[in-house]
Design a protein that fits this description.
Helix content: 25-40%
Number of helices: 8
Largest sheet: 12 strands, mixed
Structural class: alpha+beta
Order of helices and strands: EHHEEEHEHEEHHEEEHEHE
Distance between the termini: 35 Å
Amino acid sequence: MNITTKQFNLLSDINAVWNFLVETYDRENDSGRPAPFFEYALSSSWMDTSYSFLDRLWFDGDKVVAFVYYEAPVTDIYFNVRKGYEFLAEELVDYAVSDMPHFGGEQQFVLFGGQQAIKDAAAKRGFKQVYEYTDLVFDFKNELHYGLPEGYHFVGPEHIDIVKCSKLCWYGFGHGEKGEFKDWDAYDDSLDWTPAKSHKSGWRSFVSPSPHATPEYNIIIADTNEEYVCFAGMWWVPQNKLAYMEPLCTHPDHRRKGLAAATLTEQYRRMKALGATCMTGGEDEFYKKIGYGKGSHWTFWKKG
């Protein structure tokens, strides 16, 4: 083996990371995060990408065999390792401890059910599990069958208004407390587009589409006034037969009406026709109520 390393470069390595995560995805053994997890974070306004140069790739020749990276907060560290290269676990953990963000001793490893080698290496360095939970996934062997409530309709992908979608997400994710949503017409040439200023002032951030995003499979529901009220994003990964649903939100004025369940039912219908075998969700009790079952087992480890 000819093991080498390389620091992650956003412009040149995004495809290599995506391909590696697709190739190593193992739902049954719960061996790490699927490909959309990392790329969705990179494209999100809540993600601090300023430390992404610390993410590191391990290669065996030209083949990526391991990846150490952070998400949010930057002190949460993740590991993905190709099967057969678990012997790198101690080296990966050593790198994470010495070089990945660890401000004020807040560093935390996020490890999954099938990552025993990483867990063992972390324990040797004084890390202990402090929390755990299991997220929920919908198995397409089952069926989702929640109908659209009266007074609402799905918006065809050819008619989606990105500003109206942004407005829905602004309120759907609780940003209304920062101020009223401002549409495109409210911008002028004097606007400071830096992330810090845009967040403080309540302005939206605009980012370029991710190279592997599949927005054509997003689902949006509108009311009779053509206001968008529910949105579910979808990352379709055909190699893994994975329907990675992210994000999901409902406008506060339209919650508890069955819109989210209807949206996921439509996602299920469309993605199953493409060959998907499962769709991701989250840990919220809502998913369990509509038929989601056991997914990944998340464990959180801290030193001392």
